[in-house]
Design goal:
Low-confidence stretches: none
Distance between the termini: 76 Å
Strand content: 15-25%
CATH topology of the largest domain: Nucleotidyltransferase, domain 5
CATH class of the largest domain: Alpha Beta
Number of helices: 20
Radius of gyration: 30 Å
Number of strands: 19
Amino acid sequence: MQPAQPPPFDGKAFVRTLTSAPGVYRHFDAAGELLYVGKAGNLRKRVSSYFLKPRMEPRIAAMVAQIARVEITVTRTEGEALLLESQLIKSLKPRYNILLRDDKSYPYIYLSSGEDYPRLAFHRGAKNLPGRYFGPYPSTYAVRESLSLMQKLFKVRQCEDSYFRNRTRPCLQYQIGRCSAPCVGLISVEDYRNDVRHAEMFLEGRSNAVIDELAEAMEQASKALQFERAAKLRDQVAALRQLQAQHHVQGASADMDVIACRIEAGMACVSVLFFRNGISLGTREFFPRLPLDAEPADVLTQFIAQYYLDRPVPRELILGEALADRAILAELLSQHAGRAVELKSSVRGDRAQFLQMAERNAQASLTARLASRQTLGTRFDDLQKLLGLAAPPRRIECFDISHTMGELTVASCVVFGPEGPEKSHYRRFNIAGITPGDDYAAMHQALTRRFRKVADGEGASPDVLLIDGGGGQVAQALDVLKELGVTGIEVVGVAKGPGRRAGEETLVLARIEAGSPGRELHPGSSSPALHLVAAVRDEAHRFAISGHRKRREKARERSVLEDVPGVGARRRSALLKAFGGMQGVEGAGVEELMQVKGIDRGLAERIYASLHG
């Protein structure tokens, strides 16, 4: 006998049990999958709209037909409900909600503290280092440009601490006038801290105060007949005034974001113009996941809730749509920021022009994305035909290997879907325990680590697995998949053509059941499918090379002296300064090493033994 089917969900009966308090509701289907998260000022009234309305929009009707269970959470206020709704959408990613897909943390400018000569640096990720963080900035380019300006204006160092501690003479940045060479004592601690203070003031938006201080110092230097110092200060003031004229935006408040949304063909684009301290930091476009029939106002409400509730909020948000929840959002953002935050949609003058600019950016980016998606869809369809698949692939993975003469091998895995690269699913594998330069062993190890999770029932499995290489690399992939018992994956090797010319690649096809590489295809340079395969392969190649370079640079920054017991940062720095670098330390004998302060005979012998095997 078949088990009895559970009775259908009685929404009308469920609604009668609900409270009229504010809260959050969650719709689930029969399999327990979360369909939708919503907030309500009155739970009974809001939830009843799903089950008591005679006619509904197609999107809502399709969702309601799947509802098998509803859960609620009562909150004290509607603002708390909005906050909880945003958190649940971001963490649970329900199918029918608007979801902001923004996987990258935002970049900051970091100013270190607790040292005589602090440094300015690019920073992304957890803010757990002592010091100050300025930002967030909308893009890496905005941070790099700001750091370049800091070098020109205030000459605060930006080098890594390991590099700074081991200098014995000024570097190129000093030679081109972008650093004051604190590493070798060419500037006093007091003067350097003054430069750091001015850089802080500038990043806080107090550039006029910096100019006033520098102008006063110039006058005093001139009166004291210190004409060389006065000339330097004059040039610094002139550079600051020129910078203000170039970057200050007329009509922009100190802190303001201008946000516009455009929707077309089932896709939404949110464009944000960032202004801080009256200076434009640039523009960024977002493409949230969009259920059918959503309106721009709905998208903006969800965007603001998901984006700003875990980031610093400007004092003013200029919006392209009037929001029904504007007052609740303003109150919630004000509590989050600890000061008043205004949301405005009816604006005039300069703000209206900024809003028009954001709307044009949103429309242009949306048009470009739609055209790109259409092209990508054509390529996926052509790949289906080329490989003889039952349906266009939903997930393509590609593996590549990178090393320098076998040193510090890194394998990359990139993922593409129907909408393009899925960067949150990219992975790198540091390869160890193989013969240097053995690409087959490296590929075998990377694939084993990746697909062991699939064999254990964790993570998604690709429809097509691309391997950068010919039959040998494909054979490695087949061996791994057979060992792990993973099936249903089309394996394709991408071998370079004659003369390594683009468009002449050979595709080596293989099926797991056959156990070996099969037929070869030569699609030609006009094939949309080959364009897709080449783009995915090139992205895997780029990702592998960048990972290998990072690993190599990190390894080369490490000093052999760090492995010697008893040699800390101070003794290491003293040794390098005493002998002019690592080559001098390696050439020194035990007696010479003992001449360095803090190095006794026992430690000198350990250093010598470590450096000479």
